[in-house]
Amino acid sequence: MTPETTILVAIGLPLVGALAISLAGRIGPNIREAATAITSVLLIWVVWGLIPTLMEGGRPSIEVSEVMPGLSIAFTVEPLGMLFAALASGLWLINSIYSVGYMRGNKEKNQTRFYVCFALALSATVGVAFAGNLFTLFLFYELLTLSTYPLVAHKGDAATIRSARIYLGVLLSTSIGLFLPAIIWTYTVAGTGDFTAGGILAGKLNDPEIGLLLALFVFGIGKAAVMPMHKWLPAAMVAPTPVSALLHAVAVVKAGVFAITKIIIYIFGIEYLFESPSSEWLLYVAAFTIIVASLVAMRQTNIKRLLAYSTIAQLSYVVMASAILKPLAEVGAALHMVAHAFGKITLFFAAGAIYVASKKTEIHQLRGIGRRMPWTMAAFTIGALSMIGVPPTAGFVSKWYILAGAFEANNLVAVFTIIVSTLLNAAYFLPILYIVWFEHEKEGDKEHGEAPFLAVLALTLTAILTLAFFLFNGPVIELASQVVKGLS
């Protein structure tokens, strides 16, 4: 199978898997979940099989269809997209393992629809990762929104439907109202929307126009949750925890920050943006989002809402790193997508495990729960320390590169933001760890132990990945470094 054919197989495989899952659901849950696991394993095999080609300098691409002259559906595998696709496909398998324990343990309804939509979302995610131009990126970005809406609305009650409509409304209105006009403007002035090393806009726009076009892209890509386009994310917390993990770690938010980073590098070009004063606003908006979202997180009493606002802040680390416009910071942006994915999926898995085992959703209810759920809360502790950036966790590695890039650029705003936000992260995570491990349960608390085995297995695996990335990050750094190779 050629690399070009492999691209199409990677996008099509989850679609075939979705059909197989739907049919298997009519036979029984074990067959359905086996179909999910087999599909996810095959997707890893296909996607990761492209890594050696990239490491050797290959950039396989394929054009599927020309919609009209100059506008085509095309795919290209480049280092940043490869990193995103490998991350999403790998975590899908672990999320699928977790989902079996969570969905059965919580006796959720419509489980077949859940697994089918998950597979459809992964197909769209791989399409986003391998998009060869802005038009293809937009198509799969929208498909990702539509395929995840039923997952957010899974419970089906009135409150859930209202929140799901906020999710859908914000993401569709920003993409159609801002992202699409930005794409049309780019095609008009550049004559192409292809992702090209060094960018395609140099000399095509004057300085104020550069800043305006950048704003259309950044705020139009609502999945990145840059304030004020962030409200969909807390609203989506009505979804089951495996969906929250999908939104925050595997697909949706990562698609947002991935798209912004890719557009900065391959559409604007780092050097071109660095020379444009009108692009400087992005760093300040990202810094504002990081600090304000962290402050809001400190006020939350619900576990998942705290994690949601933590995600908003962590996403803007990627945006801010991209906006620093220095090679080390761009590598840090790519690394933080991975580090945040490992740490945050662990935290959401733990939150879901707590709910399945004890039905507890509030932080004050967690007193002494570490004694009843040691595996779950040990994983939660590792995820929290990674969000803070404490070694030996993944979060330390990515923050190191972002901070190094900030010093390289002599950007005191970025340095200040990283230091202050790290302190704020500690301020809302460390008290939780204290009450979990050192305070005593209230009298009359429900007797319970750990969540179902598969849920605990999954969160243990992601916690191990969070620690392992601190020591074994060389291949990821090498892949991320290829993104900015040759940039000054």
From TrEMBL:
Its main location: membrane. It comes from the Bacteria. It holds the Pfam family Proton_antipo_M. InterPro entries: CPA3_Na-H_Antiporter_D, ND/Mrp_TM. GO terms for molecular function: oxidoreductase activity. It is an enzyme of class 1 (oxidoreductase). GO terms for cellular component: plasma membrane. Keywords: Cell membrane, Membrane, Oxidoreductase, Transmembrane, Transmembrane helix. It is a multi-pass membrane protein. It is found in: Cell membrane; Membrane. The chain crosses the membrane at residues 6-27, 34-51, 71-94, 114-132, 138-154, 166-190, 210-233, 245-269, 281-299, 306-325, 337-357, 378-402, 414-439, 451-472. Residues 131-424 form the NADH:quinone oxidoreductase/Mrp antiporter transmembrane domain. Its EC number is 1.6.5.11. Belongs to the CPA3 antiporters (TC 2.A.63) subunit D family. This is NADH dehydrogenase (Quinone).
